[in-house]
TrEMBL record:
Keywords: Coiled coil, Membrane, Repeat, Transmembrane, Transmembrane helix. Its main location: membrane. It is found in: Membrane. It comes from Rhizophagus irregularis. The keyword Membrane applies. Residues 8-267 form the Ion transport domain. The chain crosses the membrane at residues 24-40, 52-73, 85-105, 125-147, 234-257. Residues 358-394 form a coiled coil. GO terms for molecular function: monoatomic ion channel activity. This is Ion transport domain-containing protein. One of its GO terms (biological process) is calcium ion import across plasma membrane.
């Protein structure tokens, strides 16, 4: 939180409200606190390298610490404080730090359940998202080949002889003049809107991919510069993209998300996450003498349980046949006495049902053995008859 406060204040507060020396000191403090957190993260990495890579939050933590450190150093070293590169660094650093602050709420059950769902569901649908991404790249590639300009052009100079329909100058809006009272329009436009790199987003494969992403979320403006009546191939690709991805795969994704959320929406997943957070704090954030404090880490931990809830849970376990085990027999008997529960393992309905099922299985097994013995006897009789027939024939 201190790192977030120092860096956010230095990056956000306008110059008229903060002195430049104070801003520099805040950036220096951000570097110090950032390195402290980074050292703790490196300790986790050294402790278990493979497990560190499997945890998504560790990768996010590294970015959230390294980026503000680099940005703060770059701010202190550079003279031009208004260059676009520095502003972009400040923007993304604040974004990652804000999300990192939000991750501290994972330890609280009210918020932690949702973080657990987010990560577990993301892991389950990752392969599906990968397939979806490959299909989107395929469509972006197809549109790029179809709609990219086939001749050289310059956005600063108009070539009137270029008839390429994908040339941004031919796609930009043009304005013609009415030459007489009959409404006839001049064939030579007298005014052009100067095109830019977004006039034809399929000039580059990167902007082509972004144009398809925009089309996926409902923005088809990147494809509106071509008349659909004259370009049936564009229409075919749009229809295929709409049916395959927008209609089928996106609805399938929603169904998969619903199923995954129902599976992972439980308290057990949150408790596992909380245990991992506590273990991480004890291993890497506490000093050695703090780990030896008896008040924090007692040899025995006593729990208080509600008698009525305990009685209900024990009866449920007995009913489902999960109570009668060989572990902690004395403790179980004491619980029966304290909670006034009458239980006879011999009369347990679940056990009796299992015994009856075993008896049925044993009976069916013996019946099958008898049938098998009869079949063997019949086979032997058949062989004996054949042998007698051969003897008589000789």
């Amino acid at each position: 939180m201190t790192l977030l406060g120092c860096f956010t204040a230095a990056a956000t507060i306008p110059q008229k409200y903060i002195n430049e020396n104070v801003r520099n000191q805040l950036f220096i403090a951000s570097i110090i606190f950032g390195f402290i957190h980074l050292i703790l993260e490196i300790r986790q990495f050294i402790y278990r390298i493979k497990k560190w890579f499997y945890n998504f939050w560790n990768i996010f933590d590294i970015i959230a610490y390294v980026l503000p450190i680099y940005t703060s150093i770059y701010w202190l070293k550079t003279i031009d404080k208004n260059n676009s590169y520095l502003i972009q660094l400040l923007s993304f650093s604040c974004l990652f730090l804000d999300i990192k602050f939000l991750l501290f709420f994972r330890a609280f059950e009210y918020f932690g359940v949702y973080f657990t769902i987010i990560i577990s569901v993301g892991k389950k649908i990752f392969s599906f998202l990968l397939v979806l991404f490959i299909i989107i790249i395929s469509f972006a590639h197809a549109f790029y080949i179809l709609l990219s300009p086939k001749s050289d052009f310059s956005l600063e100079k108009h070539n009137t002889n270029d008839k390429d329909p994908n040339n941004p100058w031919n796609l930009a809006p043009s304005y013609s003049q009415i030459i007489d009272n009959d409404g006839n329009i001049s064939s030579n436009p007298f005014m052009f809107q100067i095109p830019d790199k977004n006039t034809n987003m399929f000039i580059d494969i990167r902007t082509s991919l972004f144009a398809i992403y925009l089309f996926l979320i409902g923005d088809s403006s990147a494809l509106s510069n071509w008349p659909y009546a004259d370009n049936p191939s564009i229409v075919i690709l749009i229809i295929l993209f709409s049916l395959l991805i927008v209609v089928y795969l996106m609805n399938l994704l929603i169904g998969l998300l619903n199923n995954a959320i129902e599976e992972d929406n439980n308290r057990v997943s949150y408790l596992i996450q909380k245990a991992e957070i506590l273990a991480e704090i004890e291993l890497f954030y506490l000093l050695p003498h703090q780990r030896r404090w008896q008040t924090w880490f007692p040899e025995a931990i006593h729990y208080n349980a509600d008698a009525d809830k305990t009685r209900i849970e024990i009866k449920r376990l007995i009913k489902e046949g999960e109570w009668d085990t060989k572990e902690f027999t004395e403790m179980r008997e004491n619980l029966f006495k304290v909670l006034s529960i009458e239980h006879n393992p011999i009369d347990n309905e679940v056990i009796l049902e299992k015994l009856s099922e075993l008896e049925k299985l044993e009976k069916s097994y013996h019946e099958k053995l008898e049938k098998f013995d009869k079949l063997e006897k019949l086979d032997k009789l058949d062989k004996l008859e054949k042998l007698l027939e051969e003897i008589h024939a000789k």
